[in-house]
Design a protein that fits this description.
The strands form three sheets. Strands 3-7-4 form a three-stranded antiparallel beta sheet, with helices on both faces. Strands 1-2 form a two-stranded antiparallel sheet. Strands 5-6 form a two-stranded antiparallel ribbon. The model has no long low-confidence stretch (mean pLDDT about 85). By secondary structure, it is an alpha+beta fold.
């Protein structure tokens, strides 16, 4: 079975956690962060690859809540979000000597926004595989921070596994889009 570079393994599974890296060059390219490989990826292990539905929901959150040059990382609980903000501040301080990119962050530059995603009409309710109506609200905790410190937030995401799941992001996107 030939699965193209960056596609889900197994193919056509929306929440797959494996990705096709069919050649040795593709594997090496992934490890080196080559753009040709990263741009082709539609899936990957959740701690190393932020799933497409999560990326789309983060863009939605940015459109609603971000200040200029700010981005977001999404968490299922306030505790996870607060630990992320603490990690960003701690790491920025430690890495400030080595990189001017992080600078000295002021407290207001990294903040948590609570976002309740709730169906406002019957059309916004999702249906699961068993045809059960899914219409429960979801509370997300969105860490908003300057784009320049995204690598620090990504480290927290990767090392803790505390980010939201692709399934939760898909559910929230369905509601958000139906509410519009």
């Amino acid at each position: 079975m030939d699965v193209p570079l960056g596609e889900c393994v197994p193919p056509s599974t929306p929440f797959a956690v494996s990705v096709s890296l069919p050649t040795w060059d593709d594997n090496v390219g992934y490890e080196k962060g080559e753009q040709r490989v990263l741009d082709a990826m539609v899936s990957g292990y959740p701690r190393f690859f932020i799933a497409k539905p999560i990326q789309a929901l983060a863009e939605h959150v940015k459109d609603r809540f971000a200040l200029p040059k700010e981005t977001a990382m999404l968490f299922p609980s306030l505790a996870c979000a607060e630990r992320c903000t603490g990690f960003i501040f701690d790491q920025a301080k430690k890495q400030q000597k080595d990189s001017a990119a992080y600078g000295l962050l002021a407290r207001g530059q990294v903040r948590v926004v609570q976002y309740v995603v709730e169906p406002i009409n019957r059309k916004a309710a999702a249906v699961d595989a068993m045809k059960n109506k899914l219409d429960s609200p979801v509370t997300l905790y969105c860490v908003m921070f300057p784009e320049a410190v995204f690598p620090l937030a990504k480290q927290y995401w990767q090392h803790t596994g505390n980010g939201i799941s692709a399934r939760l992001a898909s559910y929230c996107l369905h509601i958000a889009q139906a509410n519009e």
